[in-house]
């Protein structure tokens, strides 16, 4: 199992951990839970600088810089980053003396580097014995430039002006002519392009498109006739019953059908007893992957709380498990 968490350092109103490091925090949580953690932080443009970092000052600078500062570096550009990031130590300032402001601005995050992303996935796929999480450092609003890249108002940006659209086109080399930019057309490389062919090949290898619409099942299913629901269709005479009771009766009747019954999965949010569905606990059982390892308090009763590996009811609870 592989999780990928996009760590763009920002939430809706501001940085997630402006005075700290959200990636370090998540790393501790996942490592404590026994996961293999891969941190995808720096892109390839950082590699030459890291190779020259013989005294470890660049790594020290990276570790002491908090997320709020990293956000500002991407928001304000190369000159700002030279002064407020690399300029903190003489050693790191000297490392970028030969780089232009444009070069410094181009120093990328790992989550935006295809080569680094591939390397992370390769490592994750070849990790055995435990689940893996990839913590990918990215920039919120990547590609928007002055229109919203790495800014606190990024999530509120519903549209970009034409100047920003042109800058976006140029940045990502999207082949749309100048006289068409004002129309903001969708660009598609074509069905025979290498990119589309690759995507289709990978999707086929994974079993085809999802979601997919199927008109016929692999196995024919015979639905029960209306006679099976006679207890409901014949009415209740002068006695009134609630809509809920009628529904539960119908569900119980369908569960007794030998062909359809095993395919029905009632999903309950901790309200089975409220709606008179507790009879299903014993009839079809509550699904649990490990079986029932305790004797339920109501074990002596007819409709006791029966959990079973082959149970059909999904008992989701309300929010107690999510109380954290």
UniProtKB/TrEMBL annotation:
UniProt-listed SUPFAM superfamilies: Thiamin diphosphate-binding fold (THDP-binding)
Keyword Glycoprotein: no
Cofactor field: thiamine diphosphate
InterPro entries: PDH/Transketolase, PDH_E1_M, THDP-binding
Sorted UniProt keywords: Pyruvate, Thiamine pyrophosphate
Keyword Metal-binding: no
Domain Pyruvate dehydrogenase E1 component middle: 231-324
Protein name: Pyruvate dehydrogenase subunit E1
Species of the source: mine drainage metagenome
């Amino acid at each position: 199992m592989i999780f990928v968490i996009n760590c763009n350092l920002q939430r809706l109103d501001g940085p997630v951990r402006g005075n700290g490091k959200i990636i370090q925090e998540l790393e501790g949580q996942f490592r404590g839970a026994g996961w293999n953690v891969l941190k995808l932080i720096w892109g390839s443009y950082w590699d030459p600088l890291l190779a020259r970092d013989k005294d470890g000052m660049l790594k020290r600078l990276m570790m002491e810089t908090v997320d709020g500062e990293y956000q500002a570096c991407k928001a304000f550009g190369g000159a700002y980053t030279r002064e407020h990031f690399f300029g903190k130590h003489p050693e790191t300032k000297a490392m970028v003396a030969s780089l232009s402001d444009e070069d410094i601005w181009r120093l990328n995050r790992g989550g935006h580097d295809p080569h680094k992303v591939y390397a992370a996935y390769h490592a994750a796929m070849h990790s055995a014995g435990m689940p893996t999480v990839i913590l990918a450092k990215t920039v919120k609003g990547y590609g928007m430039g002055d229109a919203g890249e790495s800014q606190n108002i990024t999530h509120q940006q519903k549209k970009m002006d034409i100047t920003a659209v042109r800058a976006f086109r140029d940045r990502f080399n999207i082949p749309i002519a100048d006289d068409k930019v004002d129309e903001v057309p969708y660009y598609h490389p074509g069905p025979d392009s290498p990119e589309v062919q690759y995507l289709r090949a990978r999707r086929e290898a994974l079993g085809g498109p999802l979601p997919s619409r199927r008109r016929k099942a692999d196995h024919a299913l015979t639905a029960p006739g209306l006679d099976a629901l006679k207890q409901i269709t014949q009415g209740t005479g002068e006695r009134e019953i609630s809509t809920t009771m009628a529904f539960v009766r119908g569900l119980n009747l369908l569960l007794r059908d030998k062909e359809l019954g095993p395919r029905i999965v009632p999903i309950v949010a901790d309200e089975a007893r409220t709606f008179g569905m507790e009879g299903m606990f014993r009839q079809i059982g509550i699904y649990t992957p490990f079986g029932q390892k305790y004797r339920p308090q109501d074990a002596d009763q007819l409709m006791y709380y029966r959990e079973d590996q082959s149970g059909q009811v999904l008992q989701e609870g309300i929010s107690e498990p999510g109380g954290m």
